[in-house]
Amino acid sequence: MKKLELAEIIAFVKERVARETKLSPDQIDTDQYLGVYGLDSINSVHVLVELERFTGLELNPLLFWDYPTIHKLSKHLHQLYLNKG
Fold first, then answer.
1. 6-78: CATH number
2. DSSP label at residue 6
3. Is the model's pTM score more than 0.85?
4. Ranges of each domain in the chain
5. Which residues have a Cβ under 8 Å from the Cβ of 30 and sit 6 or more positions away?
6. Which terminus of the chain faces fewer neighbouring Cβ atoms within 10 Å, N or C?
């Protein structure tokens, strides 16, 4: 099984946030707070479910609160992913 790289996780999260908020991925800054883009609790759950499938991790819904930017969230997910294997 191929290991996920941090850049792959960042790109995945960025694309999913863009899709949920109906923005272009080019409009998403990975260091900006996710709330700025209008990501609400329902959108967050959709992204969370896809992240669980993508990473194979079971994730806590409070993850977006604890890691409020794509970059912080992705770094945390990457560490969890590396620790599971």
1. 1.10.1200.10
2. H
3. yes
4. 6-78
5. 10, 14, 69, 70, 71, 74
6. N
The pLDDT tens digits of the residues spanning 7-49 come to 999 999 999 999 999 999 999 999 999 999 998 889 999 999 9
Confidence band, pLDDT 50/70/90 cuts, at residue 85: low
Check if the beta carbon of residue 67 is closer than 8 Å to that of residue 76: yes
Cα gap 34→48, rounded to integer Å: 13
Each residue's pLDDT tens digit, 43-78: 999 999 999 999 999 999 899 999 999 999 999 999
DSSP state, residue 1? -
